[in-house]
Amino acid sequence: MLNPSIISGKIDFDRIRADFPLLQREMNGKPLVFLDSAASSQKPRQVLDALQHYYTHLNANVHRGVYKLSQEATDAFESGRRAAARFINAGSEREVIFVRGTSEGINLVASSFGRKFFKPGAEILITGMEHHSNIVPWQLACEQTGAVLKVVPVTDSGEIEIDVFENMLSDRTALVAAVHVSNALGTVNPVEEMIRLAHARAIPVLIDGAQAVPHMRVDVQALDADFYVFSAHKMLGPTGFGILYGKEKWLEQMPPYQGGGEMIKTVTFEKTTYNELPFKFEAGTPDISGAIGLEAAINYMEKIGLDNIQAREHELLQYGLDQLSGIDGIRFYGAAKQKASVISFLLDGVHPFDLGTLLDKMGIAVRTGHHCTQPLMARFGIPGTVRASLALYNSTEDLDQLAAGVIRAGNMLR
User: Fold this and answer.
1) Quick one: 19 and 109 in the same domain?
2) Catalytic one among 264, 372, 382, 404?
3) pTM for the full model?
Protein backbone atom coordinates (compact mmCIF):
# COMPACT_ATOMS: atom_id res chain seq x y z
CA MET A 1 0.00 0.00 0.00
CA LEU A 2 1.33 3.40 -0.99
CA ASN A 3 -1.20 5.44 0.97
CA PRO A 4 -1.08 7.89 2.65
CA SER A 5 1.67 9.16 0.34
CA ILE A 6 -0.79 9.23 -2.56
CA ILE A 7 -4.03 10.94 -1.68
CA SER A 8 -6.93 11.05 -4.13
CA GLY A 9 -4.57 10.74 -7.08
CA LYS A 10 -2.34 13.64 -5.95
CA ILE A 11 1.25 13.05 -4.94
CA ASP A 12 2.05 14.25 -1.42
CA PHE A 13 5.83 14.25 -1.59
CA ASP A 14 6.16 15.61 1.94
CA ARG A 15 4.46 12.48 3.28
CA ILE A 16 6.41 10.14 0.99
CA ARG A 17 9.40 10.67 3.28
CA ALA A 18 7.57 8.68 5.96
CA ASP A 19 7.80 5.58 3.73
CA PHE A 20 11.59 5.56 4.27
CA PRO A 21 12.41 4.35 7.80
CA LEU A 22 16.11 5.26 7.76
CA LEU A 23 15.30 8.91 7.09
CA GLN A 24 13.81 9.12 10.58
CA ARG A 25 17.30 8.70 12.08
CA GLU A 26 19.37 11.40 13.67
CA MET A 27 23.07 11.78 12.83
CA ASN A 28 25.37 13.49 15.32
CA GLY A 29 22.32 14.62 17.24
CA LYS A 30 20.75 16.29 14.19
CA PRO A 31 17.87 15.18 11.93
CA LEU A 32 19.39 13.33 8.97
CA VAL A 33 19.53 15.27 5.70
CA PHE A 34 20.38 12.58 3.14
CA LEU A 35 21.83 14.01 -0.07
CA ASP A 36 23.82 11.06 -1.42
CA SER A 37 21.24 9.14 -3.44
CA ALA A 38 23.49 9.04 -6.52
CA ALA A 39 25.71 6.67 -4.52
CA SER A 40 22.82 4.60 -3.19
CA SER A 41 19.20 5.48 -2.57
CA GLN A 42 17.24 4.82 0.58
CA LYS A 43 14.63 2.04 0.56
CA PRO A 44 10.91 2.46 1.23
CA ARG A 45 9.14 0.21 3.69
CA GLN A 46 7.39 -1.51 0.77
CA VAL A 47 10.74 -2.81 -0.54
CA LEU A 48 11.91 -3.85 2.92
CA ASP A 49 8.63 -5.70 3.49
CA ALA A 50 9.00 -7.54 0.17
CA LEU A 51 12.50 -8.70 1.10
CA GLN A 52 11.38 -9.88 4.52
CA HIS A 53 8.38 -11.68 3.03
CA TYR A 54 10.61 -13.62 0.66
CA TYR A 55 12.92 -14.85 3.41
CA THR A 56 10.10 -15.70 5.80
CA HIS A 57 7.57 -17.19 3.34
CA LEU A 58 9.23 -18.13 0.01
CA ASN A 59 12.86 -18.98 0.71
CA ALA A 60 13.84 -21.75 -1.72
CA ASN A 61 16.07 -22.07 -4.76
CA VAL A 62 14.54 -21.31 -8.14
CA HIS A 63 14.11 -23.19 -11.42
CA ARG A 64 15.29 -26.46 -9.84
CA GLY A 65 12.59 -27.84 -7.62
CA VAL A 66 9.37 -29.66 -8.40
CA TYR A 67 8.04 -28.94 -4.91
CA LYS A 68 5.55 -26.13 -4.41
CA LEU A 69 7.78 -23.79 -2.37
CA SER A 70 10.45 -23.78 -5.08
CA GLN A 71 7.82 -23.12 -7.73
CA GLU A 72 6.42 -20.20 -5.72
CA ALA A 73 9.93 -18.75 -5.33
CA THR A 74 10.53 -19.19 -9.06
CA ASP A 75 7.27 -17.41 -9.89
CA ALA A 76 8.21 -14.47 -7.62
CA PHE A 77 11.73 -14.33 -9.07
CA GLU A 78 10.55 -14.33 -12.69
CA SER A 79 7.87 -11.78 -11.82
CA GLY A 80 10.80 -9.43 -11.10
CA ARG A 81 12.09 -10.02 -14.62
CA ARG A 82 8.69 -9.25 -16.12
CA ALA A 83 8.49 -6.05 -14.05
CA ALA A 84 11.95 -4.94 -15.21
CA ALA A 85 11.08 -5.65 -18.85
CA ARG A 86 7.89 -3.61 -18.51
CA PHE A 87 9.67 -0.80 -16.69
CA ILE A 88 12.14 -0.14 -19.50
CA ASN A 89 9.84 -1.40 -22.29
CA ALA A 90 12.11 -4.23 -23.37
CA GLY A 91 10.90 -6.11 -26.41
CA SER A 92 11.07 -9.44 -24.58
CA GLU A 93 11.88 -10.86 -21.16
CA ARG A 94 14.62 -12.81 -22.94
CA GLU A 95 16.45 -9.48 -23.30
CA VAL A 96 16.55 -8.84 -19.53
CA ILE A 97 19.64 -10.34 -17.88
CA PHE A 98 19.98 -10.31 -14.09
CA VAL A 99 23.42 -9.13 -12.94
CA ARG A 100 24.93 -7.81 -9.70
CA GLY A 101 24.67 -4.21 -10.88
CA THR A 102 25.68 -1.75 -13.56
CA SER A 103 29.37 -2.58 -13.21
CA GLU A 104 28.87 -6.28 -13.80
CA GLY A 105 26.54 -5.60 -16.72
CA ILE A 106 29.20 -3.50 -18.45
CA ASN A 107 31.89 -6.06 -17.65
CA LEU A 108 29.70 -8.80 -19.13
CA VAL A 109 29.34 -6.92 -22.42
CA ALA A 110 33.01 -5.92 -22.51
CA SER A 111 34.09 -9.52 -21.98
CA SER A 112 31.52 -11.42 -24.02
CA PHE A 113 30.80 -8.95 -26.83
CA GLY A 114 34.48 -8.02 -26.91
CA ARG A 115 35.66 -11.61 -27.32
CA LYS A 116 33.26 -12.04 -30.21
CA PHE A 117 33.55 -8.73 -32.06
CA PHE A 118 36.64 -6.71 -31.09
CA LYS A 119 39.65 -7.04 -33.39
CA PRO A 120 43.11 -5.44 -33.30
CA GLY A 121 42.80 -1.78 -34.27
CA ALA A 122 39.06 -1.61 -33.59
CA GLU A 123 37.97 1.48 -31.67
CA ILE A 124 35.75 1.68 -28.59
CA LEU A 125 34.33 5.18 -28.16
CA ILE A 126 33.46 6.50 -24.69
CA THR A 127 33.01 10.01 -23.28
CA GLY A 128 35.18 12.02 -20.92
CA MET A 129 32.54 11.98 -18.18
CA GLU A 130 32.30 8.21 -17.70
CA HIS A 131 32.26 6.45 -14.35
CA HIS A 132 35.26 4.18 -13.82
CA SER A 133 32.89 1.24 -14.37
CA ASN A 134 32.43 2.40 -17.96
CA ILE A 135 36.16 2.95 -18.52
CA VAL A 136 38.12 0.10 -16.94
CA PRO A 137 36.19 -2.82 -18.52
CA TRP A 138 36.90 -1.36 -21.98
CA GLN A 139 40.57 -0.88 -21.13
CA LEU A 140 40.71 -4.55 -20.16
CA ALA A 141 38.96 -5.50 -23.40
CA CYS A 142 41.47 -3.43 -25.35
CA GLU A 143 44.38 -5.19 -23.66
CA GLN A 144 42.88 -8.57 -24.47
CA THR A 145 41.86 -7.91 -28.07
CA GLY A 146 44.14 -5.18 -29.42
CA ALA A 147 41.28 -2.69 -29.69
CA VAL A 148 41.87 1.01 -28.95
CA LEU A 149 39.97 3.27 -26.55
CA LYS A 150 38.89 6.70 -27.85
CA VAL A 151 37.43 9.45 -25.67
CA VAL A 152 34.94 12.16 -26.67
CA PRO A 153 36.01 15.39 -24.86
CA VAL A 154 33.83 17.24 -22.36
CA THR A 155 33.21 20.99 -22.63
CA ASP A 156 33.69 23.48 -19.80
CA SER A 157 29.94 23.30 -19.12
CA GLY A 158 30.16 19.52 -18.77
CA GLU A 159 28.55 18.57 -22.05
CA ILE A 160 29.30 16.49 -25.13
CA GLU A 161 29.34 18.36 -28.43
CA ILE A 162 27.36 16.20 -30.79
CA ASP A 163 29.31 17.26 -33.88
CA VAL A 164 32.59 16.26 -32.20
CA PHE A 165 31.06 12.92 -31.28
CA GLU A 166 29.86 12.39 -34.85
CA ASN A 167 33.29 13.22 -36.28
CA MET A 168 34.91 10.64 -34.01
CA LEU A 169 32.73 7.84 -35.36
CA SER A 170 34.46 5.89 -38.09
CA ASP A 171 34.54 2.57 -39.88
CA ARG A 172 36.90 1.39 -37.15
CA THR A 173 34.41 2.08 -34.33
CA ALA A 174 33.26 -1.27 -32.94
CA LEU A 175 31.13 0.05 -30.06
CA VAL A 176 30.01 3.27 -28.38
CA ALA A 177 29.66 3.15 -24.58
CA ALA A 178 28.23 6.29 -22.99
CA VAL A 179 26.62 7.40 -19.76
CA HIS A 180 22.99 8.57 -19.94
CA VAL A 181 23.22 10.87 -16.88
CA SER A 182 26.59 11.82 -15.35
CA ASN A 183 26.88 10.84 -11.71
CA ALA A 184 29.41 13.63 -11.08
CA LEU A 185 27.83 16.50 -13.04
CA GLY A 186 24.18 15.60 -13.54
CA THR A 187 24.53 16.14 -17.30
CA VAL A 188 21.82 14.40 -19.32
CA ASN A 189 23.55 13.31 -22.50
CA PRO A 190 21.75 13.39 -25.88
CA VAL A 191 21.80 9.61 -26.05
CA GLU A 192 18.95 9.42 -28.56
CA GLU A 193 20.97 11.44 -31.10
CA MET A 194 24.19 9.60 -30.23
CA ILE A 195 22.52 6.24 -30.86
CA ARG A 196 21.00 7.48 -34.11
CA LEU A 197 24.36 8.70 -35.40
CA ALA A 198 26.13 5.50 -34.38
CA HIS A 199 23.47 3.31 -35.95
CA ALA A 200 23.79 5.24 -39.20
CA ARG A 201 27.22 3.59 -39.38
CA ALA A 202 25.93 0.24 -38.04
CA ILE A 203 27.78 0.78 -34.73
CA PRO A 204 26.17 -0.78 -31.62
CA VAL A 205 25.73 1.35 -28.48
CA LEU A 206 25.80 0.57 -24.76
CA ILE A 207 24.22 3.09 -22.39
CA ASP A 208 25.07 3.29 -18.69
CA GLY A 209 21.68 4.16 -17.22
CA ALA A 210 22.50 3.85 -13.52
CA GLN A 211 21.77 7.54 -12.87
CA ALA A 212 18.94 7.87 -15.41
CA VAL A 213 16.51 5.09 -14.50
CA PRO A 214 15.81 6.43 -10.96
CA HIS A 215 14.93 9.89 -12.23
CA MET A 216 13.20 9.67 -15.60
CA ARG A 217 11.20 7.40 -17.85
CA VAL A 218 13.45 5.16 -19.97
CA ASP A 219 12.17 3.30 -23.04
CA VAL A 220 14.93 1.15 -24.49
CA GLN A 221 12.99 0.44 -27.66
CA ALA A 222 12.38 4.14 -28.30
CA LEU A 223 16.07 4.84 -27.61
CA ASP A 224 17.00 1.90 -29.83
CA ALA A 225 19.90 1.12 -27.47
CA ASP A 226 21.69 -2.15 -28.13
CA PHE A 227 22.59 -2.51 -24.45
CA TYR A 228 21.30 -0.62 -21.41
CA VAL A 229 22.50 -1.24 -17.86
CA PHE A 230 21.32 -0.07 -14.43
CA SER A 231 21.39 -0.94 -10.72
CA ALA A 232 18.56 -1.64 -8.29
CA HIS A 233 20.19 0.08 -5.31
CA LYS A 234 20.11 3.50 -6.99
CA MET A 235 16.36 3.23 -7.67
CA LEU A 236 15.06 2.39 -4.17
CA GLY A 237 15.85 -1.34 -4.50
CA PRO A 238 18.35 -3.69 -2.82
CA THR A 239 22.11 -3.68 -3.25
CA GLY A 240 23.98 -6.23 -5.32
CA PHE A 241 21.38 -6.49 -8.06
CA GLY A 242 20.93 -4.94 -11.50
CA ILE A 243 19.79 -5.33 -15.07
CA LEU A 244 21.56 -5.73 -18.37
CA TYR A 245 19.18 -5.17 -21.24
CA GLY A 246 20.51 -6.39 -24.55
CA LYS A 247 18.94 -6.75 -27.95
CA GLU A 248 18.29 -10.41 -28.59
CA LYS A 249 20.22 -10.34 -31.87
CA TRP A 250 23.42 -9.50 -29.95
CA LEU A 251 22.84 -11.72 -26.92
CA GLU A 252 22.28 -14.74 -29.13
CA GLN A 253 25.68 -14.22 -30.78
CA MET A 254 27.65 -13.53 -27.60
CA PRO A 255 29.40 -16.37 -25.74
CA PRO A 256 28.57 -16.98 -22.06
CA TYR A 257 30.22 -14.72 -19.51
CA GLN A 258 30.51 -17.29 -16.70
CA GLY A 259 30.01 -21.04 -16.45
CA GLY A 260 27.95 -23.20 -14.12
CA GLY A 261 24.48 -23.64 -12.74
CA GLU A 262 21.60 -22.06 -14.59
CA MET A 263 23.48 -21.22 -17.79
CA ILE A 264 23.82 -24.86 -18.89
CA LYS A 265 21.48 -27.11 -20.83
CA THR A 266 23.54 -30.29 -20.94
CA VAL A 267 27.00 -31.14 -19.59
CA THR A 268 29.33 -33.98 -20.44
CA PHE A 269 33.08 -34.16 -19.90
CA GLU A 270 33.45 -33.73 -23.64
CA LYS A 271 31.07 -30.80 -24.30
CA THR A 272 28.56 -28.42 -22.70
CA THR A 273 25.55 -26.91 -24.43
CA TYR A 274 24.23 -23.62 -23.14
CA ASN A 275 20.80 -22.62 -21.93
CA GLU A 276 18.50 -20.28 -23.82
CA LEU A 277 18.21 -16.58 -23.10
CA PRO A 278 18.21 -15.01 -20.60
CA PHE A 279 19.62 -17.91 -18.57
CA LYS A 280 22.70 -18.27 -20.77
CA PHE A 281 24.21 -15.32 -18.90
CA GLU A 282 23.01 -16.20 -15.38
CA ALA A 283 25.42 -18.74 -13.93
CA GLY A 284 24.86 -20.11 -10.44
CA THR A 285 22.18 -19.47 -7.86
CA PRO A 286 20.87 -15.95 -8.52
CA ASP A 287 20.05 -13.17 -6.09
CA ILE A 288 16.42 -14.22 -5.74
CA SER A 289 15.55 -11.61 -3.13
CA GLY A 290 17.16 -8.95 -5.33
CA ALA A 291 14.68 -9.60 -8.15
CA ILE A 292 11.79 -9.50 -5.70
CA GLY A 293 13.06 -6.28 -4.12
CA LEU A 294 13.57 -4.70 -7.54
CA GLU A 295 9.97 -5.45 -8.48
CA ALA A 296 8.77 -3.82 -5.25
CA ALA A 297 10.86 -0.73 -6.03
CA ILE A 298 9.52 -0.60 -9.58
CA ASN A 299 5.94 -0.90 -8.34
CA TYR A 300 6.55 1.91 -5.86
CA MET A 301 8.01 4.25 -8.47
CA GLU A 302 5.31 3.44 -11.01
CA LYS A 303 2.53 4.20 -8.53
CA ILE A 304 4.02 7.62 -7.92
CA GLY A 305 4.76 8.04 -11.64
CA LEU A 306 8.13 8.59 -13.29
CA ASP A 307 6.96 11.88 -14.78
CA ASN A 308 5.92 13.09 -11.32
CA ILE A 309 9.27 12.02 -9.86
CA GLN A 310 11.18 13.80 -12.61
CA ALA A 311 9.16 17.00 -12.20
CA ARG A 312 9.58 16.98 -8.41
CA GLU A 313 13.33 16.43 -8.59
CA HIS A 314 13.74 19.13 -11.23
CA GLU A 315 12.01 21.60 -8.90
CA LEU A 316 14.31 20.56 -6.07
CA LEU A 317 17.37 20.87 -8.30
CA GLN A 318 16.47 24.42 -9.31
CA TYR A 319 15.64 25.34 -5.74
CA GLY A 320 18.94 23.98 -4.48
CA LEU A 321 20.95 25.78 -7.13
CA ASP A 322 19.14 29.02 -6.30
CA GLN A 323 19.81 28.65 -2.56
CA LEU A 324 23.48 27.82 -3.01
CA SER A 325 24.32 30.26 -5.80
CA GLY A 326 24.31 33.26 -3.46
CA ILE A 327 27.05 31.81 -1.25
CA ASP A 328 30.35 33.69 -1.51
CA GLY A 329 33.09 31.71 -3.25
CA ILE A 330 30.97 28.79 -4.45
CA ARG A 331 31.79 27.25 -7.85
CA PHE A 332 29.48 24.79 -9.57
CA TYR A 333 30.63 22.00 -11.88
CA GLY A 334 28.17 20.80 -14.50
CA ALA A 335 26.17 23.56 -16.16
CA ALA A 336 24.58 21.50 -18.93
CA LYS A 337 21.34 22.70 -20.45
CA GLN A 338 19.85 19.28 -19.69
CA LYS A 339 20.63 18.31 -16.12
CA ALA A 340 19.26 15.95 -13.48
CA SER A 341 19.38 15.60 -9.70
CA VAL A 342 23.05 16.44 -8.99
CA ILE A 343 24.61 19.60 -7.59
CA SER A 344 28.42 19.39 -7.68
CA PHE A 345 30.41 22.27 -6.22
CA LEU A 346 33.49 23.58 -4.44
CA LEU A 347 33.98 26.43 -2.01
CA ASP A 348 37.00 28.64 -2.64
CA GLY A 349 39.82 27.91 -0.21
CA VAL A 350 38.09 24.84 1.26
CA HIS A 351 38.98 21.21 0.58
CA PRO A 352 35.89 19.17 -0.26
CA PHE A 353 36.73 16.56 2.41
CA ASP A 354 36.84 19.26 5.09
CA LEU A 355 33.53 20.70 3.98
CA GLY A 356 31.92 17.27 3.85
CA THR A 357 33.19 16.43 7.33
CA LEU A 358 31.71 19.57 8.86
CA LEU A 359 28.42 19.06 7.05
CA ASP A 360 28.28 15.55 8.51
CA LYS A 361 28.58 17.05 12.00
CA MET A 362 25.41 18.98 11.14
CA GLY A 363 23.59 15.80 10.08
CA ILE A 364 23.98 16.50 6.34
CA ALA A 365 25.18 13.56 4.24
CA VAL A 366 26.86 14.56 0.97
CA ARG A 367 29.50 12.80 -1.12
CA THR A 368 32.98 14.26 -1.44
CA GLY A 369 35.83 13.23 -3.73
CA HIS A 370 36.19 12.23 -7.35
CA HIS A 371 32.96 10.20 -7.52
CA CYS A 372 34.70 7.40 -9.45
CA THR A 373 35.34 9.86 -12.29
CA GLN A 374 39.02 10.70 -11.86
CA PRO A 375 39.61 11.52 -15.55
CA LEU A 376 36.72 13.99 -15.42
CA MET A 377 38.12 15.65 -12.30
CA ALA A 378 41.50 15.89 -14.05
CA ARG A 379 39.73 17.55 -17.00
CA PHE A 380 38.61 20.34 -14.66
CA GLY A 381 41.91 20.44 -12.77
CA ILE A 382 40.39 19.66 -9.37
CA PRO A 383 40.83 16.84 -6.84
CA GLY A 384 37.09 16.34 -6.49
CA THR A 385 33.88 18.09 -5.55
CA VAL A 386 31.17 18.16 -2.94
CA ARG A 387 28.15 16.44 -4.46
CA ALA A 388 24.56 16.79 -3.27
CA SER A 389 22.36 14.31 -5.11
CA LEU A 390 18.60 14.29 -4.88
CA ALA A 391 15.78 11.76 -4.83
CA LEU A 392 12.00 11.84 -4.59
CA TYR A 393 12.11 11.78 -0.77
CA ASN A 394 14.08 15.02 -0.47
CA SER A 395 12.50 18.37 0.36
CA THR A 396 13.20 22.09 0.06
CA GLU A 397 13.96 22.02 3.79
CA ASP A 398 16.83 19.61 3.09
CA LEU A 399 18.29 22.11 0.65
CA ASP A 400 17.79 24.99 3.07
CA GLN A 401 19.78 22.98 5.62
CA LEU A 402 22.49 22.32 3.03
CA ALA A 403 22.85 25.99 2.12
CA ALA A 404 22.96 27.05 5.78
CA GLY A 405 25.47 24.29 6.51
CA VAL A 406 27.78 25.33 3.66
CA ILE A 407 27.73 28.95 4.88
CA ARG A 408 28.48 27.91 8.45
CA ALA A 409 31.22 25.48 7.45
CA GLY A 410 32.75 28.03 5.11
CA ASN A 411 32.92 30.59 7.88
CA MET A 412 34.66 28.07 10.13
CA LEU A 413 37.20 26.92 7.50
CA ARG A 414 38.19 30.21 5.89
Assistant:
1) no
2) 372
3) 0.95
